[in-house]
Amino acid sequence: MTTTLDVLGVGNAIVDVLTRAEDDALARAGLHKGAMQLIDEARADALYADMGPTTIVSGGSAANTMAGLASLGCRVGFVGKVKEDEAGREFAHDIRKAGVAFETPFATDGAATARCLIFVTPDGQRTMNTFLGACQALGPADIDEAQAADAKVLYLEGYLWDPPAAKEAFLKAAKLSRAKGRKVALSLSDAFCVDRYRDEFLGLIRDQLVDIVFANESELHSLYQTADFDTALVALRAEKGLLGVVTRSAQGALVADAAGVVSVPAFAVEEIVDTTGAGDLFAAGFLAGFTQGLPHDRSARLGALAAAEIISHFGARPQKDLAQLARDNGLLA
C-alpha cells in the first residue's frame, strides 16, 4: 500500500536557547550535568537571566529527528503544540522551511510556547532545563487519524509521557498506527524520563504497541535497572518482536533483536562542539535507511553520520544537506 509519509513524529515543540557554560557554573545553579530537568516558567526566567550570550534555534527531540529525515530526502510530518506567539510562529516557520509537514493548530490561550535552556560545557555535554509551556496543551484532538495510520513509521518521544493529555495523544496515535500494520518507534529520551516511567515504557514494549526502541546506554541501564551493559542488552533482545537501536557515543552504536546484534563505529569529527540532538539525528539517519529497506548496519551508519554532523556545531538541526553528505560517504545512491 502506498503511503504519503515515511515517518510521522509526535513530540514536544520547543525553542532551544543555548549558551556555553563551565562545570562550576552548573554546580552553582544546582543543575545535573547531562540531564534534562522539567522546570516552571519562573525557574526558566531565572535561569535565562543568568545565561551568557545565547543562540536561539527551534528544537524538540522528535522535531529534530523529523528535520533530519527531511534533510535526508524523506517525506515526514510532525505533530506538536505551540502557542500563537513569537516563539511559536518561529518554530512553525523553521520546521516547515526544513521540509516537514506541520499542521497542528496554534494554541490561542494558555501557557507560552515551550523553551529549553541548554547549558553546553567545554566537553560538548548539554544540560537541559525545559519549560513545557504550550506543549502540555497537546491532546488527542491534535492527532489526525488518517495521517497517523498512513505513515510507514510513527515516531514518538518518551518526553511526551510527562503531560497527561500528550500521553493520551501518544497512545491514540500508536493504536491507529498499529491497527494499520505500521511500525511504531519510541525514543526513551532521557534516563531520568525512564526512571519516572520505567514500568509504563516496559508495558508498551511487552504489549507490543512499540516495534522499535531508540536508547542510549544510560537509558538502557535505567530501563532494565542494571549497571552492566551486557545484562541490559540481553534483556532488550529478549523482548518479543522488538528491534533495539542503542547509541554508545564514541563507541558507535548497535542494532539488536532476537536474531542477533549488529555494531557500527562512530564517524570521526574534528571537534565535538555540542552534543544536543545527537541521539535525535542518529534516529533520523537510522529511520531514513529503515524506511527504504536498507540493512540495519547501513541504516545505523546513516545514523552515525547524521549524529556526527550535528555534534560538530551548535544547535540540533542540520546545517549541511544530509542527503548529499550520505551520498558523498557512499551510504545513499
Automatic annotation (TrEMBL):
UniProt GO MF annotations: kinase activity
PROSITE patterns: PFKB_KINASES_2
Swiss-Prot/TrEMBL keywords: Kinase, Transferase
Record has Phosphoprotein as a keyword: no
A Pfam match: PfkB
Residues in Carbohydrate kinase PfkB domain copies: 55-318
Family the UniProt entry places it in: Belongs to the carbohydrate kinase PfkB family.
Protein name per the record: Adenosine kinase
Organism: Methylocystis bryophila
